[in-house]
Write a structure and sequence with these properties.
The protein contains 17 helices and 4 strands. The protein has a 4-stranded mixed sheet with strand order 1-2-4-3. Helix 11 crosses helix 15. The longest helix is centred in the first third of the chain and has 34 residues. The chain starts with 6 loop residues before the first helix and ends with a helix. Zinc ion binds next to helix 11 and helix 14.
């Protein structure tokens, strides 16, 4: 090891390592099925959902571990340091060329590490379970579109990061966090109207049955929801879903076409009522506020991690970029349980809201059962995996909560 790993890095890496091992162990050995599951699901449904979930989980954790190892190598090994020095020497005289080149090198390697895992779990595995309706061509189109958006935003990000690092060597973290906070607001505001339409078509639902449900729910809840949008999800998947997104004028409830086309009105109604719950409780704005607080905390802590990457003369080296990526990746991983917990709490609130609004406990429970079967959700997921990463409560606790 060229760079001595200091104590804070060591703690973070060990913690992430322990979480990864625990996660992996629970993927391979998911444990016994909760006996209550047999009240609502057949053995076949329970087993096939377990079998299906194995690969997405394995792909997630393998992707995390391999990317973390690559970044640890870039940030802390002799060879990693030599590469950073080589880039610096090659671009002598032009720091920014060096920064961009070093960034690109890591970006390409990480993309290549991820690619086979997501191609398999996202395309081939989904097809083998009959959950994907996507052609391979469309999959690659999506992949390149996302990659280009990611590359563009990341290039802006890396240039901005080194700009504030060199311009304000003491206070860069406050400026960086403040900038990211503003970015998060814009992202929540604009993503649904700028980025989402690059991947799907969204149109206002005109079906009079559905619009009358929307009006009825809105009146009853005293909310200003005038319409919902339908998204052509069936181009990619057979899964059924709806979601709430946006801020201010871009707030919207979106339903998959798979939901509106194949489900009876009373089920559509309770699903929409759940999304009304997210809207009414202001979950996007609350999530955003927590995200902004979290950003400041993470950037404040990051100072103590990136100081490792200063040269003997006290300025930050190009290798700081590997350190930043590694830090962000590891810290988001270890605080994932906290984020998942907050999300699960919001889901419980939205479920309660839907129950109060519709009074239809039976329909709500039945929808949970339907969606679980249709989307092949794990009926009895390992407790650790729920604690670590479930942003919705598992189906049995939702049924229980809904009075099923
Ligand atoms: Zn929800």
């Amino acid at each position: 090891m060229h760079r001595k790993i200091n104590i804070q890095w060591l703690i973070l890496i060990i913690l992430a390592g322990l979480f990864s091992i625990a996660y992996l162990a629970n993927v391979v050995f998911p444990g016994k099925v909760n006996p209550t599951a047999f009240k609502y699901f057949t053995i076949d449904q329970i087993q096939s959902a377990r079998a299906y979930n194995f690969i997405p989980r394995l792909s997630y954790i393998t992707s995390f571990i391999t990317q973390a190892i690559v970044l640890i190598w870039f940030a802390f090994s002799n060879k990693g340091a030599a590469i950073a020095r080589w880039v610096e020497n090659k671009s002598r005289g032009n720091f920014w060329v060096g920064v961009l080149f070093y960034f690109l090198l890591i970006w390409i390697i990480l993309s290549l590490v991820r690619l086979p895992l997501i191609l398999y779990s996202d395309f081939f595995w989904q097809h083998s379970w009959g959950l994907s309706t996507q052609s391979l061509l469309l999959w690659w189109q999506d992949f390149f579109k996302s990659a280009i958006i990611d590359l563009f935003l990341s290039v802006c990000g890396v240039l901005f990061f080194f700009f504030i690092l060199t311009r304000w060597p003491k206070f860069w973290w406050i400026i960086g966090a403040a900038f990211l906070a503003v970015w998060l607001v814009f992202q929540n505001l604009l993503w649904p109207v700028i980025v989402a339409p690059l991947f799907n078509k969204f149109v206002v639902v005109k079906d009079p049955d559905v619009t009358s449900v929307v009006t009825r729910l809105a009146d009853k809840a005293g909310m200003q929801v005038k319409e919902v949008l339908v998204m052509d999800a069936s181009r990619r998947t057979t899964m059924v879903n709806a979601y709430f997104t946006g801020l201010g004028k871009t707030k919207r409830i979106v339903a998959y076409d798979n939901l509106l086309n194949n489900y009876p009105l009373e089920k559509v109604s309770v699903i929409l009522a759940h999304e009304f719950g997210h809207w009414s409780k202001g979950h996007i704005i609350k999530g955003l506020a927590l995200g902004i607080i979290g950003t400041f905390l993470v950037w404040a802590v990051m100072v103590f991690f990136l100081s490792e990457f200063k040269s003997s003369k006290g300025f930050y080296l190009i290798q700081t970029w590997a350190g930043l990526q590694l830090f962000i990746m590891l810290i988001l991983f270890v605080i994932n349980p906290l984020q998942s917990f907050v999300s699960r709490e919001m889901e419980i609130q939205a479920d309660r809201f839907a129950l109060e609004l519709t009074g239809d406990s039976k329909a709500l429970v039945n929808v949970q059962i339907d969606l679980t079967i249709k989307n092949k959700s794990d009926v009895s997921p390992p407790e650790f995996i729920v604690w670590f990463g479930y942003n919705h409560p598992p189906v049995l606790s939702r049924i229980n909560e809904l009075g099923g």
